[in-house]
Amino acid sequence: MPNHSVLVRVPATVGNFGGALNCAALALDAPLNVKVTPRIDGRVGIRYFGEHGERVPRDRSNLAVRAMVAALDWKGLEFTGADFEIYSSVPVAVGLGSSTAAVLAGLLAAEHSFHLGLDERALLNLASIYEDRGDSLRAAWLGGFVTCAEEGGAVTHRRTVVPEDLTLHVVVPETTLAIGAGRPPAPGRVADAAHQSRAAALGDYFARPGIGHANTLFRPLPPTCEKNVPGIEEALQVHVPGVLAVFVCGSGPAVGILAESGTAAAVSAVQGCFARHGIGSCVGAYRPSNSGACDWNAVQPDIVLPRRTSSGLGASPRKSPLVPV
Asked: Could you give the residue ranges of the DSSP H alpha helices within the chain?
């Protein structure tokens, strides 16, 4: 039974990137940071710091907890409880990969706490129990831009390094979701030829930016959104010169804007689509990460606990993510 805490860090991701449904995902330089301290009383404690924290379960139904339990069970070990401190850089349940990150964080916490010997294949297989978007899982694990395609009945994945000066703007409509609400079951996660072609075009664009894809590769695809919000259909039809794609991030309802120019006009137009239905929105700007959880968690840092003062009072709780510098 380990008696120390571990820190894990997993990037947020945008699945269905650029409108390539079920076959393209981008890792963001926006981490989910999780500190896990084992217990011996079988209980679970969860403290969450981040936007939309009310949507995060505080019991064993939390995805990070469930993933950790699954990893231990796979090795025939008992989960004896743990305290989780979770620090998120992105809103919860809007399509920015918070669930994918939580699953990988729980598995990595189990690995680093109990030295289970999980290799990449085992880890991704366990993660797929709770997250069936293989492109998002691999983007979170490897970093960069990941596409998947079906060839001869087998699914293959391709990773592309993304220019780090890229900025993705995201418009998040203000919606109310129930705690622990999940997305509806999808009929399947294998993308059709049109979306696979879009994913491949995006990969080529990132590999060779600035070669004039805007008018040839990014024709509109049928809009898709698993979390329907008034105004989103109109938002996906926004067309501004210099904008490559306006698309639903993951399962939504956040709307991503990939642009070479015209970003401000596109953001304003998308927000206007929601505003006409009486729905407010906020805007975030994110950079890509070409490093993923595999790199970020290769070496576990020592945990330095705050010293007690002469008065017996400990240091104030830290509000910033628990990331070693």
From this structure: 63-74, 98-114, 120-127, 134-142, 193-207, 232-235, 263-275, 293-296
Residue 306 pLDDT more than 60?
no
CA dist., res. 231 & res. 237, Å (int)? 10
Which structure tokens are listed for 160? 């592309």
Q: What 3-state class would DSSP assign to 161?
A: coil
Domain boundaries, the chain: 6-180+187-296
* Confidence (pLDDT) at 155: 85
Query: Dihedral of CA 213/216/217/222: which sign?
Result: positive
Residue type, 283: V
Three-class DSSP category at 325: coil
CA angle (184, 44, 101) in 5-degree steps: 45
Q: Name 285's bridge partners.
A: 169
| Closest listed residue to residue 134, CA positions, set 157, 151, 159 | 157
- Peptide bond before 253: cis, by omega within 30 degrees of 0? yes
CA distance 160 to 163: 10
Say what percent of the chain tops pLDDT 90.
66
pLDDT-derived band at 308 (thresholds 50, 70, 90) equals very low
- Taking the C-alpha atoms of residue 103 and residue 10, their distance in angstroms, rounded to an integer, is 9
Q: Which CATH number fits domain 6-180+187-296: 3.40.50.300, 3.90.960.10, 3.40.50.150, 3.30.230.10?
A: 3.30.230.10
Answer yes or no: are the C-beta atoms of 250 and 15 closer than 8 Å.
Answer: yes
- Give ∠ CA 18-90-31 in degrees, rounded to 5: 95
Burial class (CB in 10 A: 0-12, 13-18, 19+), 8: buried
